[in-house]
């Protein structure tokens, strides 16, 4: 039996992931959890004081937690942040498996300028870190384990370096604090291609996404990548379509503030796992020596035949590595 609570409107995407989950985790009396979606927080709970020069936003999030027979494990928290142009919905099925296997409370967030979170002209790793810290303070979470993919991985790394007292274990998915993949330098053309899309009003979403795919195909040959980007196309009312992500803010901040990791002036000695794709160049084995200077307890694993979207292309392998690491020790 499954209990769902929503503090924002339900979407078709949520239901589709719920149906998918039934094939991953059999329903049973012991498999009872609460799934909560929050666009913003209305609580007046204790807040950690954020850096005065960095104004945090209230991130939208989905929470997966026990609602019956709480155990010591259910007091542990796992925070997940997606990559550039992604959203928490990309992690729905994985979050459910991670909750079921660990019995921890799992919270997947929408980073600022993504998903259902507020838009802001400011988009830096420093801001992302303060958003994470602010959410933890709002929810009364003193310490959590972190998972982050790509941009989210760098945000979680920086949070661990800046506020190590907040982090139990850290999982970084296919991104490095040292090098920068040449593929990141192509992001500009993706932003330009998406900004140039022109769609007729008052057509079904399926037709709008088909037309967007046709226009993007002249610039982006990878169908899988186009499908990923087009997931951000939404109807804004009156038959018009728009991008859910804040394209202008992401494009304006990307090269100077997101493409490279900020200067490192500290280290994080807690348990850390880097998971890379064997076919990706976002995390390279030759960078391990330098990474260990910053994360001295780091372990490294490379999933065979996986690219940058390791958790999407090889979910079983990703989950096995992650769950074993989180439960170890």
From TrEMBL:
EC id: 3.1.1.116
Similarity field: Belongs to the AB hydrolase superfamily.
Cited InterPro entries: AB_hydrolase_1, AB_hydrolase_fold, Epox_hydrolase-like
Residue span, AB hydrolase-1 domain: 77-315
GO molecular function annotation: carboxylic ester hydrolase activity
This protein's GO CC annotations: mitochondrion
Keywords assigned: Hydrolase
Catalytic reactions on record: a 1,3-diacyl-sn-glycerol + H2O = a 1-acyl-sn-glycerol + a fatty acid + H(+); 1,2-didecanoylglycerol + H2O = decanoylglycerol + decanoate + H(+); 1-octadecanoyl-2-(9Z-octadecenoyl)-sn-glycerol + H2O = 2-(9Z-octadecenoyl)-glycerol + octadecanoate + H(+); a 1,2-diacyl-sn-glycerol + H2O = a 2-acylglycerol + a fatty acid + H(+)
Protein name, as recorded: sn-1-specific diacylglycerol lipase ABHD11
Gene expressing this chain: LOC113214078
Native organism: Frankliniella occidentalis (Western flower thrips)
Top-level enzyme category: hydrolase
């Amino acid at each position: 039996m499954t209990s769902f609570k929503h503090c924002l409107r339900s979407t078709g995407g949520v239901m589709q992931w719920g149906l998918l989950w039934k094939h991953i985790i059999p329903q049973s009396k012991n498999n009872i959890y609460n799934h909560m979606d929050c666009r913003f927080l209305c609580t007046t709970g204790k807040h950690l004081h954020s850096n005065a020069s960095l104004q945090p936003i209230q991130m939208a999030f989905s929470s997966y937690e026990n609602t019956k027979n709480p155990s010591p494990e259910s007091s542990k928290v796992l925070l997940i942040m997606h990559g550039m142009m992604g959203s928490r919905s990309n992690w729905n099925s994985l979050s459910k498996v991670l909750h079921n296997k660990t019995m921890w409370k799992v919270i997947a967030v929408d980073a600022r300028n993504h998903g259902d979170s507020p838009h802001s002209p400011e988009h830096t790793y420093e801001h992302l870190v303060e958003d994470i810290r602010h959410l933890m303070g709002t929810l009364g979470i003193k310490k959590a384990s972190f998972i982050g993919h790509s941009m989210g991985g760098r945000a979680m790394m920086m949070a661990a370096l800046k506020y190590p007292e907040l982090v139990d274990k850290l999982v970084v998915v296919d991104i490095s604090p040292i090098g920068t993949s040449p593929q990141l330098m192509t992001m500009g053309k993706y932003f330009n291609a998406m900004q140039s899309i022109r769609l007729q009003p008052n057509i079904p979403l399926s037709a709008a996404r088909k037309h967007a795919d046709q226009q993007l195909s002249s610039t982006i040959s990878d169908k899988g990548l186009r499908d990923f980007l087009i997931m951000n196309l939404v109807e804004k009312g009156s038959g018009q379509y728009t991008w859910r992500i804040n394209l202008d803010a992401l494009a304006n901040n990307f090269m100077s503030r997101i493409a490279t990791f900020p200067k490192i002036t500290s280290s994080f000695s807690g348990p850390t796992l880097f998971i890379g794709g064997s076919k990706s160049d976002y995390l390279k084995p030759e960078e391990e020596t330098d990474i260990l200077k910053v994360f001295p307890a780091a372990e490294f694993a490379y999933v065979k035949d996986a690219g940058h979207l390791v958790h999407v292309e090889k979910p079983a392998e990703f989950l096995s590595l992650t769950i074993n690491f989180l439960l170890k020790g």
